[in-house]
Amino acid sequence: MKRLGLFVTGTDTGVGKTVVAAALIQSLIARGLHVAAMKPVASGCELTPQGLRNSDAVRLRQCSNVSLRYEAVNPYAFAPAIAPHIAAAEAAIHIDLAAIKLCFMELADRSDLVIVEGVGGWLVPLASELTVADLALELGQPVVLVVGVRLGCLNHALLSARAIAATGLTWAGWVANLYDPGCARVRENIDALSQRLPPPLLGVIPTLEDRERDAGRYLDAAVLKAVLDGDG
């Protein structure tokens, strides 16, 4: 069955999901594909004349080489930079997974692949009965785990991988994001994760001056192709 996209999640908030999602888009566009982007739920949005806009969703939309409605890229946008289930409750808005799926299919119809970025980590609540894991299940796409390499990342990464496996979703791989220049024993941490996380390692993104422009070249194109072809 054709893969419609990838779902990018992280070991925590602020670990570089948007950097990796943008890198995936760049790498796939370089392979000649039409790639759409989606951030279904976003907190911390700015009020503009066009409505609430999230900087990560705007960035991903700009990275795409497909013309996309912002409302399809980011159907649920909340102003306060707080947990999405709290923001949604305060705005009296119910996050509807079926509505998100409709937007996803709109983007999939316009592109070869859709790169979807989750919010926070894998089990972040979206409502009293919903989590990011439920959103990923609704979309049904292979999962990429972004590991922010820092002290404590081993436990966070291994617990996240176990939770992803428990859903039965396809594991697409993981990316090590070296966003903390003060992290000690970086190589040893990556080696420990490589021994314990399911393969493949899609890439190691170093600390970069211009991460938005340069991150894509640190993904392994051959490994990514195998994943998308169903061999990963």
Low-confidence stretches: none
Overall 3D form: globular
Q: How would a crystallographer describe the biggest sheet? A: 6 strands, parallel
The CATH superfamily is: P-loop containing nucleotide triphosphate hydrolases
Radius of gyration: 16 Å
| Multimeric status of the protein | single chain
| Spatial separation of the terminal alpha carbons | 14 Å
Beta-strand proportion: 15-25%
CATH topology: Rossmann fold
**Number of separate domains:** 1
Reading the helices and strands in chain order gives: EHEEEEHHEHHEEEHEHEHEHH
Q: Tell me roughly what share of residues is in helical segments.
A: 40-55%
Question: What would your notes on this structure say?
Answer:
The chain is an alpha/beta fold and 232 residues long. It has one domain: Rossmann fold. 40% of the residues lie in helices and 22% in strands. The chain is built from 10 helices and 12 strands. The chain has helices at residues 17-30, 55-63, 70-73, 84-90, 97-109, 132-139, 153-167, 186-196, 211-214, 221-228, and strands at 5-10, 35-38, 41-42, 46-48, 51-53, 76-77, 113-121, 125-127, 130-131, 143-148, 171-177, 201-205. It has a 6-stranded parallel β-sheet with strand order 2-7-1-10-11-12, with helices on both faces. Helix 8 (186-196) links the parallel strand 11 (171-177) and strand 12. Helix 1 (17-30) runs parallel beside helix 2 (55-63). The longest helix has 15 residues, at 153-167. The radius of gyration is 16 Å and the shape is globular. The two termini are 14 Å apart. 46% of the residues are buried. The mean pLDDT is 92.
